[in-house]
Amino acid sequence: QLRYSVPEDREPGSSVGDLAKDLGVEVRSLAARNLRLVSEGGQRHFQVDLVAGVLLLDSRLDREALCGQSPTCSLHLQLVMENPLQLHRVEVDVLDVNDNAPQFPKPEVVLEITEVANLGTRLPLEVAEDPDMGSNSISTYELSPSEHFALSINVRGDGVKMPEIVLEKALDREKVAVHHLTLTALDGGNPVKSGTAKVTIHVLDANDNPPVCDPPISTVYLEENVPVSTLVTKLNVTDLDEGPNGDVEYSFKISNNAPGKFTNLFALDPRTGEIRTKGPLDYEESSAYEIAVRARDKGSPAMEGHCHLRVELIDVNDNSPEIVLTSLSSPVLEDATPGTVIALIGVKDSDSGDNGQVRLQIAKELPFKLVSSFKEHFSLVTSGPLDREKASGYNITVRAVDSGSPQRATQKTFYLRIADVNDNAPNFSSPFDTAHVQENALPGTSVFSVSASDPDEGSNAKLSYSILHNGMQDVPISTYFRIDQDNGTIYTVRALDYEQDKVFQVPVEVKDAGSPALSSTAVVHVFVLDENDNAPTIVYPSVPKGSAFHQTIPALAEPGYLVTKIVAVDADSGHNAWLSYQLQEDAEALPFQVERRSGEIRVAQALRESEDPHRLVVEVRDNGTPSLSASVVLVISPEENSVQDFSKSLDLPKSSPKDTNLTLYLIISLVSISLV
């Protein structure tokens, strides 16, 4: 909190104080921190020179217009700086300058006094007005020299000096009927300023006892907000005269010092002298009232006395605290460190004393706390970690309670939004997934859709999918599959061949759009489903296309004799690789038959002597849909001297490494298919 003072007659543009020095900041940082000035009264009297870092006067100040008759005059400002957010309070005391001369309400005052007035009789005079305060206000009064009258000065309860003319020598109307005097009011300024009023005193006969107020100056204490018509006091006035000369009437005495304001709040009974409340009294509007009462008798000429009453109000806790949200930083990042300033809060209570002492509080379960900056100003700071995924915002209720009895409280609720930070990596619904795709499916066929979620929001939750190269295949996995980066759908890039690759491991990465980006991975096992796209291949007998295999058998071979065996393989698997053997020609016309599953060709009936060679077409067909087949042509010739059996006529030597390897390949293929 900074405090400066400036005389009221300073020219606009004058320097008030060095803000940069007093705040302890560099001058060049003021513009970057967006230093700005906020006037609490709503009127702009000052400005900040960001280049020099000083507080300047924006307009000429008039202390009397700003603060009236208040003994002190302070203007309250607020300096707000950002990065980090700070609030500083500045109080500027406006110093009084003797720029006003005393002035009487009337330039000429006419008084009356009976010629039988006793020595010491006092004639009250109008109080001169001087808007200046302190030593610049009214200091004393002077009266022009007079043989009969002298000047007396009394001090009222509020410190105001009241001039009175005192009779020092008996009057004789027959000698001098009218006395002309000059009253001068002097202030305490340097140089001294003065004002004058002409005083004309008419000397009258008769009524020689004025009403007397006892005591002439009194003080009454009254609580604010008392009901209307409450009795404040009853004036004690005596007049020693009898009859009309002792009959007193009361009236308020109005002066420019208090221009009739109290007449709206107090009522005076002109006959009894009772003063009662006329309207509601508010301590916060005025803590005291000065009431002047004129007591005038009905003599001829009438005589009057004056009573001065000071009514001091006792404060009652009738004002609730007021909460002012000066600044709010919303939203705040969820990774804000404890102690980060969220809001600047001011509080004020128009009551005084304990009734105006206010304390602030918020709910204990919130991750925030209140820190007192300076008098009646607080900072709301974070007291713990924030997590947007658990709470995206907070309704913060600030409660202000005063110390009066009974207590009065008020509360203000505002919403603080928590801004997202990319602190959560996206997660797949499952780290491993299984998908199936038919071999030979057209490129662009949808295989599987992976799904991931991210509890963050905005760009931090915007996900993109990609396929990683795992190095398990000889060719990059991206040559087989692609993925839609927006929805995670996996498509084939080309037709797949079950016989070449039966299963793929497709590693998928999901990455958010945060900064820095976070990611996670999952593996999709894609199994290729076999399709009957390979016809059976006859490995024995191996005959060039368009040729026939010749086989001789004994002419007297009996039924069941093994002629030969057809051996075929199918690159497909499962049902597509189940093979069956059959003769294409009418089996009944031939003396041979083929075993459906084994492919063995045996003699079905006894052969006739000198029988011609037989031509057989053996068809091998798989069990797929549609079924595929292959065929071989056999020419079987019976010979009398032929005694070879199948084992001798078979063109596959038992020790052939090629046939041994083929059998091994068949066994490995069957075992692999069974395992899958």
From TrEMBL:
GO cellular component assignments: plasma membrane
InterPro entries, alphabetized: Cadherin-like_dom, Cadherin-like_sf, Cadherin_CS, Cadherin_N, Protocadherin/Cadherin-CA
Pfam families linked to this entry: Cadherin (PF00028), Cadherin_2 (PF08266)
Record bears the keyword Transmembrane: yes
Sequence intervals crossing the membrane: none
Occurrences of domain Cadherin (ranges): 5-104, 105-213, 214-323, 324-428, 429-538, 545-655
SUPFAM superfamilies registered for this protein in UniProt: Cadherin-like (SSF49313)
Keyword Transmembrane carried by entry: yes
Membrane topology term: Single-pass type I membrane protein
SMART domains: CA (SM00112)
Source species taxonomy: Eukaryota, Metazoa, Chordata, Craniata, Vertebrata
Gene Ontology BP terms: homophilic cell adhesion via plasma membrane adhesion molecules
Keywords, ordered alphabetically: Calcium, Cell adhesion, Cell membrane, Glycoprotein, Membrane, Repeat, Signal, Transmembrane, Transmembrane helix
The protein's name: Protocadherin gamma-C3
One GO molecular-function entry: calcium ion binding
UniProt-annotated location(s): Cell membrane
